[in-house]
């Protein structure tokens, strides 16, 4: 079913539960994946691709409520790939930023050893990519 939550490896969910985190950031996921009681904020649903109900490029979860939520970032960011907020933690209030970098900006070609493509990627990276470094 196209609108069903993405299947998460059970070991991933067990690992998250075992660590009892105060904050979780997931990318390329579904809003129903995390079932723990808590508070979620999401990137916008429009990512430039076909929308699938419930899917998000970024989800932030916290045990405590979120404040100062921003799902836009700066105008130069591509849509639907950013969310940030401030949440109370044992360390105090912490700002968490979740970003899903578009494939063309991930520089995975260099990691795979495809030097020709990675050189082209560096030359053609959009101007907003420089704000992430």
Task: Give an overview of the whole structure.
There is one protein chain. The chain has 133 residues and is of the alpha+beta class. Helices cover 19% and strands 30% of the residues. The protein contains three helices and six strands; from the N terminus they run αββββββαα. The protein has helices spanning 10-19, 108-112, 115-124, and strands spanning 23-30, 39-42, 55-62, 67-70, 82-89, 92-99. It has a three-stranded antiparallel β-sheet, with no helix packed on it. A three-stranded antiparallel β-sheet has the order 4-5-6, with no helix packed on it. A hairpin with a 2-residue loop joins strand 5 and strand 6. The radius of gyration is 16 Å and the shape is globular. The relative contact order is 0.16. Residues 115-126 have low confidence and may be disordered.
């Amino acid at each position: 079913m196209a609108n069903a939550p993405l299947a998460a490896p059970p070991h991933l969910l067990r690992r998250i539960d075992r660590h009892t985190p105060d904050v979780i950031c997931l990318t390329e996921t579904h809003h129903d994946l995390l079932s723990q009681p808590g508070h979620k904020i999401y990137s916008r649903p429009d990512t430039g691709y076909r929308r699938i109900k419930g899917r998000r490029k970024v989800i932030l979860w916290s045990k405590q409520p979120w404040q100062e939520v921003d799902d836009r970032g700066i105008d130069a960011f591509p849509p639907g790939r950013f969310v940030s907020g401030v949440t109370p933690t044992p360390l105090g209030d912490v700002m968490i930023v979740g970003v899903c970098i578009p494939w063309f900006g991930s520089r995975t070609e260099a990691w795979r050893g495809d030097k020709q493509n990675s050189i082209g990627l560096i030359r053609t990276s959009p101007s907003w990519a420089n704000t992430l470094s």
